[in-house]
């Protein structure tokens, strides 16, 4: 299983890229949102990957974060949701948007993705609502993930130019919104709130205050969780 690729972007199409890793080209399919964030041709690129192997098919799908990769894995576990539909949902909503919609039971937002009907959207929310807290709590960097089990990392050879010291790219941290949500979710869990209630409150708070930091999200979520009346 190939869990991550680091190499040079050699070619890009509308829905996939070709990444050269030590002279071997890997075709990686990505969502529209991910494609828009990738560097230009000839530049260095790193993606987490999920590989689908069937009798007549072998394809790689690429993701810029572990959160997005995990949502892809969970989405494709739902009956009737294949890789194409999963990428459409992630492309339309992004991983944070998927977390919010599923934590809040908002199947109408999921349905807005291309190729997703109402029954499929309802099934996604129903099947995955209990999984949302765990995905929202993910906040590790690429460096952290490489130290853990289960990832086969394919990386390019070191540069051979004489007299030059290779520069290592800094690890990619999660986005501010993802990190704030993960921290708020952890704090609410430490305060004794259940995972589903905490996830729904953090998701609603993040939707209302998209620029909020961790402390602001915690305060907003606590207001939502406070007894009414």
TrEMBL record:
<keyword id="KW-0067">ATP-binding</keyword>
<keyword id="KW-0238">DNA-binding</keyword>
<keyword id="KW-0347">Helicase</keyword>
<feature type="region of interest" description="Domain III">
    <location>
        <begin position="178"/>
        <end position="229"/>
    </location>
</feature>
<dbReference type="GO" id="GO:0006310">
    <property type="term" value="P:DNA recombination"/>
</dbReference>
<dbReference type="GO" id="GO:0005524">
    <property type="term" value="F:ATP binding"/>
</dbReference>
<feature type="region of interest" description="Domain I">
    <location>
        <begin position="1"/>
        <end position="64"/>
    </location>
</feature>
<dbReference type="GO" id="GO:0009378">
    <property type="term" value="F:four-way junction helicase activity"/>
</dbReference>
<dbReference type="Pfam" id="PF14520">
    <property type="entry name" value="HHH_5"/>
</dbReference>
<feature type="domain" description="Helix-hairpin-helix DNA-binding motif class 1">
    <location>
        <begin position="108"/>
        <end position="127"/>
    </location>
</feature>
<dbReference type="GO" id="GO:0000400">
    <property type="term" value="F:four-way junction DNA binding"/>
</dbReference>
<dbReference type="GO" id="GO:0005737">
    <property type="term" value="C:cytoplasm"/>
</dbReference>
<protein>
    <recommendedName>
        <fullName>Holliday junction branch migration complex subunit RuvA</fullName>
    </recommendedName>
</protein>
<dbReference type="Pfam" id="PF07499">
    <property type="entry name" value="RuvA_C"/>
</dbReference>
<dbReference type="GO" id="GO:0009379">
    <property type="term" value="C:Holliday junction helicase complex"/>
</dbReference>
<feature type="region of interest" description="Disordered">
    <location>
        <begin position="157"/>
        <end position="176"/>
    </location>
</feature>
<comment type="similarity">
    <text>Belongs to the RuvA family.</text>
</comment>
<keyword id="KW-0227">DNA damage</keyword>
<dbReference type="GO" id="GO:0006281">
    <property type="term" value="P:DNA repair"/>
</dbReference>
<dbReference type="Pfam" id="PF01330">
    <property type="entry name" value="RuvA_N"/>
</dbReference>
<feature type="region of interest" description="Domain II">
    <location>
        <begin position="65"/>
        <end position="142"/>
    </location>
</feature>
<keyword id="KW-0547">Nucleotide-binding</keyword>
<keyword id="KW-0234">DNA repair</keyword>
<keyword id="KW-0963">Cytoplasm</keyword>
<dbReference type="InterPro" id="IPR003583">
    <property type="entry name" value="Hlx-hairpin-Hlx_DNA-bd_motif"/>
</dbReference>
<dbReference type="InterPro" id="IPR013849">
    <property type="entry name" value="DNA_helicase_Holl-junc_RuvA_I"/>
</dbReference>
<dbReference type="GO" id="GO:0048476">
    <property type="term" value="C:Holliday junction resolvase complex"/>
</dbReference>
<dbReference type="InterPro" id="IPR036267">
    <property type="entry name" value="RuvA_C_sf"/>
</dbReference>
<dbReference type="InterPro" id="IPR010994">
    <property type="entry name" value="RuvA_2-like"/>
</dbReference>
<comment type="function">
    <text>The RuvA-RuvB-RuvC complex processes Holliday junction (HJ) DNA during genetic recombination and DNA repair, while the RuvA-RuvB complex plays an important role in the rescue of blocked DNA replication forks via replication fork reversal (RFR). RuvA specifically binds to HJ cruciform DNA, conferring on it an open structure. The RuvB hexamer acts as an ATP-dependent pump, pulling dsDNA into and through the RuvAB complex. HJ branch migration allows RuvC to scan DNA until it finds its consensus sequence, where it cleaves and resolves the cruciform DNA.</text>
</comment>
<feature type="domain" description="Helix-hairpin-helix DNA-binding motif class 1">
    <location>
        <begin position="73"/>
        <end position="92"/>
    </location>
</feature>
<dbReference type="GO" id="GO:0016787">
    <property type="term" value="F:hydrolase activity"/>
</dbReference>
<keyword id="KW-0233">DNA recombination</keyword>
<comment type="subunit">
    <text>Homotetramer. Forms an RuvA(8)-RuvB(12)-Holliday junction (HJ) complex. HJ DNA is sandwiched between 2 RuvA tetramers; dsDNA enters through RuvA and exits via RuvB. An RuvB hexamer assembles on each DNA strand where it exits the tetramer. Each RuvB hexamer is contacted by two RuvA subunits (via domain III) on 2 adjacent RuvB subunits; this complex drives branch migration. In the full resolvosome a probable DNA-RuvA(4)-RuvB(12)-RuvC(2) complex forms which resolves the HJ.</text>
</comment>
<dbReference type="InterPro" id="IPR012340">
    <property type="entry name" value="NA-bd_OB-fold"/>
</dbReference>
<dbReference type="InterPro" id="IPR000085">
    <property type="entry name" value="RuvA"/>
</dbReference>
<keyword id="KW-0378">Hydrolase</keyword>
<dbReference type="InterPro" id="IPR011114">
    <property type="entry name" value="RuvA_C"/>
</dbReference>
């Amino acid at each position: 299983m190939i869990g991550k690729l680091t190499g040079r972007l050699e070619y890009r199409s509308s829905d996939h890229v070709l990444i050269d890793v030590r002279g071997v080209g890997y075709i990686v399919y990505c969502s529209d949102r991910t494609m828009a964030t990738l560097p230009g041709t000839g530049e260095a690129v790193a993606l987490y990957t999920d590989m689908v192997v069937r009798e007549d098919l072998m394809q790689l799908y690429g993701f810029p974060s572990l959160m997005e990769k995990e949502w892809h894995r969970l989405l494709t576990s739902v009956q009737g949701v294949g890789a194409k539909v999963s990428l459409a949902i992630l492309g339309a909503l992004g991983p944070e948007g998927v977390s919010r919609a599923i934590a809040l039971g908002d199947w109408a937002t999921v349905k807005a993705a291309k190729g997703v009907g109402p029954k499929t959207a309802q099934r996604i929310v129903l099947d995955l609502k209990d999984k949302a807290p765990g995905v929202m709590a993910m906040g590790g960097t690429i460096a952290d993930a490489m130290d853990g089990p289960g990832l086969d990392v394919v990386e390019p050879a070191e540069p051979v130019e004489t007299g030059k010291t290779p520069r290592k790219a800094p690890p990619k941290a999660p986005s501010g919104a993802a990190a704030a949500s993960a921290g708020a979710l952890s704090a609410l869990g430490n305060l004794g709130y259940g995972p589903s209630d905490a996830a729904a409150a953090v998701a609603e708070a993040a939707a209302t205050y998209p620029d909020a930091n961790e402390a602001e999200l915690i305060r907003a979520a606590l207001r939502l969780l406070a007894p009414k009346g």
